[in-house]
Amino acid sequence: MTWDPRSLPDLSGHVYLVTGSNRGLGYFASEQLVRAGAHVIMSGRHPNRLSAARAAIRRRITDAAPDASEPLILDTSNLASVRSAAASVRGRGGLDGVLLNAGIVHAPKVRETTIDGNEVVLATNALGHYALAGELLPALAAAAGRMVWLGSVSTSLTPYDPVDPQLADRYSAWRAYVQSKVATAAIGFEADRRLREAGMPVASVVAHPGYSTGGRTPGIAGVNEPSRSKRFRDNLQAPIAQSKEHGAWSLVRALVDPEVEGGEFWGPRTRSRGEPRKQTAARVTRDPEVGARLWDFAETATGVHWPFGVEPRRPA
Ligand SMILES: NC(=O)c1ccc[n+]([C@@H]2O[C@H](COP(=O)([O-])OP(=O)(O)OC[C@H]3O[C@@H](n4cnc5c(N)ncnc54)[C@H](OP(=O)(O)O)[C@@H]3O)[C@@H](O)[C@H]2O)c1
């Protein structure tokens, strides 16, 4: 089937949750889903930022239904927030998909930990999403849904094996970011193996947006307001960079294209920009030994055990 990221199939009646949807890739993924008729649960950690993003969607998609999106407070670095948000999503019935997008892209220079005691980049990007997807499994199974994890080409540039996922030793901002993305992708592929083994009707897919920058992205009040100097700097990278609007294409395709299958890896054509294509992920992220090890680690660090084998919760 030819896929046109500018003209998605009709998604009326479908419900998706997007994490970190108030700006960046999460905002544009939400916008594209709403434009195709889906109902989007837009989540973020600040009510005001979510309101600004939902207002932007209403301004830019004037024929969208007034209730095309709904807000959900969710801080992926805080396990209590994850559990509470997941409970409210489960309570509303089946879920067609979750885009596990929220993330710290510019990691702190010095190691920080969350209220739960985990290294903050790993917690935000990987552990919170592991816990969220596990808590949402009954709702996803009820709709034969899909989860999409955010990988990154940085995992091929420096393929760290997270033998010390919490980075107790040798912390650096780059290592924290790349390790969190190795962990996210490896857990996403491991989830696919475990879902298949359990015979659950839920697909786990990993996607990445290439190199997508705010300075190459349309200005939208309250969502993307880069300074002139950022626009200038980002435009110098035009041959290898794209907008976050275009970066969201691969994430949305991974989430909604009926031909995408669990265990696949999707990203832009040249790996840094372009239309979505199926690709091969970094070897370390595909290694089942690494996946199983990180899964055990995530279970212990979050206390969340995915309810494999539990009957899907059907909407009342
Ligand atoms: N841009 C790229 O080229 C690129 C490349 C590879 C992978 N990625 C991945 O794509 C994802 C999105 O990146 P982006 O470029 O769109 O980044 P971004 O513009 O910085 O947006 C990050 C989003 O995540 C949210 N977020 C951060 N910490 C959070 C937390 N604790 N709880 C809930 N939400 C939180 C932010 O919300 P606030 O406004 O509240 O901070 C924001 O909505 C990330 O996972 C990133 O690793 C991006």
CATH topology term: Rossmann fold
How far from one another are the termini? 35 Å
Name given to the CATH architecture: 3-Layer(aba) Sandwich
Report the top-level CATH class: Alpha Beta
Order of strands in the sheet with most strands:
3-2-1-4-5-6-7-8
Main sheet attributes: strand count, strand direction, barrel closure: 8 strands, mixed
The CATH homologous superfamily is called NAD(P)-binding Rossmann-like Domain
Low-confidence stretches: none
Number of domains: 1
Count of alpha and pi helical runs:
11
Percent of residues in β-strands: 5-15%
Shape: globular
Total number of beta strands: 8
- Return Rg in Å: 18 Å
